[in-house]
Amino acid sequence: MKAVIAALLLHIFPLSVSSFTPPYRGDCRFFLDTADTREWDALLPRGLFYGVTTNPTLLERANEPCTIANLHKLASKALSYTEEFMCQSWGSTANELYQNGVAISEFDRERVVIKVPVTATGAEAASKLSKSGVRICFTACYNKNQALIAASSGVEYIAPYLGRMTDNGKDGYGECRTMQRIVDGLGSDTRILVASLRDADTIAELAMEGLDTFTFNPNVARQLFDEPLTDNAAKEFEEAAARGMSRQ
After folding, report:
1. Residue 90 and residue 104: Cα distance in Å, rounded?
2. Are 107 and 76 in contact (CB under 8 A)?
3. Helices marked H in 82-119 — which ranges?
């Protein structure tokens, strides 16, 4: 009888995974940074990701065509799991970046975010895209001063590359913390979307500093679940449950 009632409830109130946001998530937003759909299938059902981020380099690594049609296909799959899909526009001029960005976002203006490099050309394209109702993330950020551009432009996200900044002799961790202070100081709602993260510990440390938006690759995602003591405890619980059921 319970199974019948459950089936009826699902028919009347169908579950929509893509529209569900955990009620206690707060301001936290985690994104999975890959275009490999096999990794989406493996990791997105775990429920901790707000969205997916991609760019032309990730598309190439995953052997996915960098075309409008394919990005629409990928958006459909990503949004069946999550709330947002971020993908990057391309073009050598502001107008090309604008035209491609508009075409990509047409799939779902409310849930597709268009990434553009935080360059002079990218800023011009972002201005036009914003006026057309397109959500924007400035990407390839390597300098705290670029947070000023993002805040003043009123874009929703800016993505500093922490690991790559560190590789190039900068204090990537410090730059990201300063960017957060800049947008807070300006009263801006722009999110600092920390990217190029190499380990889960860095996410925890930045979270303690007040940063709440991160994109990271599947390896880092798996690190979050890598705790042998928890695995052993879960195994012990299952063994105890099995013994308990055998006593019926």
Report:
1. 11
2. yes
3. 94-105
Query: Mind listing the pLDDT tens digit for each residue in 131-161?
Result: 999 999 999 999 999 999 999 999 999 999 9
- Enter the tokens of residue 128: 């036009």
Strands 29-33 and 135-141: unpaired
Strand 29-33 vs strand 213-216: parallel, antiparallel, or unpaired? parallel
Beta bridge partners of 236: none
Global pTM exceeds 0.85: yes
Q: Which residues does 17 contact at the CB level (< 8 Å), separation at least 6?
A: 80, 81
The answer to whether 162 and 172 have CB atoms below 8 angstroms apart is: yes
Q: Which residues contact 114 (CB under 8 A, 6 or more apart)?
A: 86, 87, 88, 89, 101, 104, 105, 129, 134, 135, 136, 137
Contact call for residues 244 and 59 (beta carbons, < 8 A): no
Look at residue 225 and give its three-state secondary structure: coil
